[in-house]
């Protein structure tokens, strides 16, 4: 670690970035450093050389892909914190700089989070990047510990915790897996089929227009309009179908057509509830699970 401390602040930042990129994306090229920091090829080469001196067993060179990959015995020399890593995956590496770089991995949604295991997170993000399947040990609320084969395609924050959007090979469909409930993750050989990739996830691709209004049971709707900066008494937002239910639950939006939930705990009402037709995550929205249960019993 002494050599890290001897490096300049800007070089330490570049060294942290290249390790982050290799560890969580599974690949690193000199051009990645050049693009992120705007440095010359010679400076990027010096960074790579210095890192390989500090951690000679961390990176393997892949001549076919012309990139460095984390070795099987990779051990980070930087202390990565879950909040910063997930913020990087969501917003990009840097302090809010708009550099026009592509996101590290498909990742959507603002909110707070629970800290996941960094090694498992790295395995998942590498699989997303490489489009490879994983065997995971998953702790389900209904079935307990199970082994599943999944193809992770994106990360999402539901406002309370992060989950992995993935194709579940056993069930033959896309679903959500809570990140902290994945106890083990191992990459499998072979690439995923086209039907298992993000481009085939219709619920992720579909964008739903939601119209949020003050709950009709509130005596002073102007106060709610002011809270959310509503225009003409409505707040219009867009959400992925895969996340719409999480959005409505996070903000306690009464999602029943007849606004029957208690306005004291549901200040907002989804006035265009028909927008949730065909939305798989709709059962998570306040009032929708009960309505689905009644319909099923009718």
Automatic annotation (TrEMBL):
Tell me the ranges covered by the WYL domain, including all copies. 120-186
Annotated DNA-binding transcriptional repressor CapW winged helix-turn-helix domain residues: 11-87
Q: Which InterPro entries match?
A: CapW-like (IPR016634), CapW_CTD (IPR059020), CBASS_pafABC_assoc_protein (IPR051534), WHD_CapW (IPR059019), WYL_dom (IPR026881)
Q: In this protein, which residues make up the domain named DNA-binding transcriptional repressor CapW C-terminal dimerisation? A: 207-275
- UniProt protein name: WYL domain-containing protein
Organism (species): Cupriavidus oxalaticus
Q: What is the lineage of its organism?
A: Bacteria, Pseudomonadati, Pseudomonadota, Betaproteobacteria, Burkholderiales
């Amino acid at each position: 670690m002494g050599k890290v401390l001897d490096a300049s602040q800007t070089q330490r930042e570049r060294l942290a970035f290249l390790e982050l990129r290799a560890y969580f994306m599974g690949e690193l090229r000199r051009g990645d450093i050049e693009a992120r920091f705007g440095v010359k090829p010679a400076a990027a080469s010096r960074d790579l050389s210095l890192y390989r001196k500090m951690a000679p067993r961390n990176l393997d060179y892949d001549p076919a892909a012309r990139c460095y990959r984390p070795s099987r015995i990779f051990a980070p020399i930087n202390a990565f914190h879950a909040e910063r890593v997930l913020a990087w995956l969501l917003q990009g590496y840097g302090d809010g700089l708009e550099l026009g770089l592509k996101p590290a991995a498909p990742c959507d949604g603002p909110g707070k989070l629970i800290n996941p295991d960094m090694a498992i997170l790295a395995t998942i993000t590498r699989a997303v990047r490489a489009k490879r399947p994983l065997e995971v040990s998953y702790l389900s609320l209904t079935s307990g510990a199970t082994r599943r084969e999944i193809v992770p395609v994106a990360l999402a924050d539901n406002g309370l915790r992060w989950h992995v959007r993935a194709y579940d090979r056993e069930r033959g469909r896309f679903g959500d897996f809570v990140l902290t409930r994945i106890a083990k993750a191992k990459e499998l050989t072979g690439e995923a089929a086209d039907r298992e990739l993000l481009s085939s996830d219709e619920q992720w691709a579909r964008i739903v227009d939601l119209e949020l209004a003050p709950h009709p049971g509130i005596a002073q709707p102007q106060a709610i309009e002011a809270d959310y900066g509503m225009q003409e008494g409505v707040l219009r937002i867009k959400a992925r179908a895969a996340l719409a239910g999480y959005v409505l639950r996070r903000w306690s939006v009464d999602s029943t057509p007849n606004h029957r939930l208690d306005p004291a705990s549901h200040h907002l009402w989804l006035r265009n509830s028909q927008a949730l037709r065909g939305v798989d995550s709709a059962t998570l929205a306040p009032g929708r699970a009960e309505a689905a249960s009644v319909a099923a019993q009718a």
